[in-house]
Amino acid sequence: MDQSLTLRYTPTVKDYATVLRLFNLRRTSMKVSLVFLALAFGLILFAILTKGSPLTALELIWLLFPPLFVIFTFYLQPVRIAQKAVQNEQLVAEATWELSGAGVQILSRYGSTSLGWETLKKLVQTRDYYLLLSKENKNSFRFLPRRAFTSPQDEQLFLQMVNQNIPKA
Question: Fewer Cβ atoms within 10 A, N terminus or C terminus of the chain?
Fold first, then answer.
């Protein structure tokens, strides 16, 4: 028996900003960058504190660069991209996800997109969202807010379908 599931939600600016932060944070390149920034910040702070003289303008810039980069990457940039996304009517129209043994069909009043299970690499679960990562494009993903589920049984069915159709990495 082929199970199917239909889910509906309307994306918001908060959805887009949040999932962009989540997606960036799970990327290995971002994690490596954050480690290097933390190390650089610590070394710069250590050098400034052990020097004993007042800060120069260049030292201040170097000291502020790592925190400003994090603020830009995890707050300003996702908010800017999210605000652009919600200006596009197609990206904030109600979406209907139809899941079946064949894959995921995402429909809106503007058209539809079919994703075969074989095109999906991994499911990332967070407190409020599910992110379906693409196999073909490491910078591509689809998100599904947990609020789209009308019951715990629907969410369990979704997870069961994903586990059956997307191999564990």
Answer: N
Dist CA 145 CA 151 (whole Å): 13
The dihedral region occupied by 118, where left means phi > 0, alpha psi between -120 and 50, and beta the remainder, is alpha
**Would the CA dihedral through 123, 126, 127, 132 be positive or negative?**
negative
Helix axes 77-86, 13-26, angle to 10 degrees: 140
For residue 102, the 8-state DSSP code is T
- Closest alpha carbon to 120 in 74, 94, 82, 158: 158
pTM (two decimals):
0.83
What's the 3-state SS for 26-78? HCHHHHHHHHHHHHHHHHHHHHHHHHCCCCCHHHHHHHHHHHHHHHHHHHHHH
> 5-11+89-165 sits in which CATH class?
mainly beta
pLDDT digits (tens, 9 = 90+) for 64-117: 988 999 999 999 999 999 999 989 999 999 999 999 999 999 999 999 999 999
**Number of helices (H) and strands (E), helices first, in the chain?**
5, 7
CB 165 within 8 A of CB 117: yes
6's tokens? 């239909």
Query: Where are the chain's structural domains?
Result: 5-11+89-165, 16-86
